[in-house]
Amino acid sequence: MYPRPSGIVTLTTDFGLRDSYVGIMKGALVAVSDKPRVLDLSHEVAPQDIAMGSFLLWSAVERFPAGTVHIGAVDAGVGTNCRLLAVTAHDQYWLVPDNALAGALMACADTTEARELDLEHLRIERTCHRFDGSDVLAKAAASLASGRYGFSAMGRRIDDADGTDLVFAGEPRIVYVDHYGNLVTNVAGDDSFVGRTIVCGEQELTVHKTVGDAPDGELLAYVGSFGLLEVAVRRGSAADRLSLQRGASIAVPSA
What we know:
The protein is of the alpha/beta class. The chain has helices at residues 21-32, 50-58, 103-107, 119-122, 132-146, 238-242, and strands at residues 8-13, 37-42, 69-73, 84-89, 92-97, 112-116, 157-158, 174-177, 183-188, 197-200, 203-208, 219-223, 228-233, 250-251. It has 2 domains: 8-158, Rossmann fold (3-Layer(aba) Sandwich), CATH 3.40.50; 174-251, Bacterial fluorinating enzyme like (Elongation Factor Tu (Ef-tu), domain 3). Helices cover 20% and strands 27% of the residues. A 7-stranded mixed beta sheet has the order 2-1-3-5-4-6-7, sandwiched between helices. A 7-stranded mixed beta sheet has the order 8-9-13-12-11-10-14. Helix 1 packs parallel to helix 5. The radius of gyration is 19 Å and the shape is elongated.
């Protein structure tokens, strides 16, 4: 059974907010149906950075109602013939290019199903491959979220969608740097980590329960709101303090 559409559509793109691209995408969506409620997850994915976009899409898992439709418009292969997909996982829907953007969320799902968008059946005209976000994904999302088309009508089922996990596969490392300069790792943690020591950027750090447990200016680790181990400086930037960015490795000794 597919989840009933919640009427919510989220947008995750590398469009930024300076240009009109996000507005055009929203315009294409509401032109199909003004029923969905459109929410911005993020438009500050670094240009063509699929791994970063994959992390941000993963961050929406289980944080929206069942049946929410998520659009991911980050494509390093823009202008190519990259397939466009509708994926169901975690009782939600994900409309993305077939470029591993949904890989992290698919990898941690109990079940997934992917379909290649059938533009002819959905009566969507692609005017330019450069604008798949507004030309195709927004229109398909509006149709799905409003109930005009069900998930099975999105297109033929496929078994070879690119499910490469660009976030959690591989060594422990920093996978995201947030607005505050906190270094988010791909290591899942819980309260059992409190008091343990990790190594990040050749610095040994004690894991605290919260950032507030440390004095101002102290470098520390803690399990953040994503359920992942993070490195932070209270009232400061860990990224600046350690001069580290995404991809930097960390060491998490066994308990």
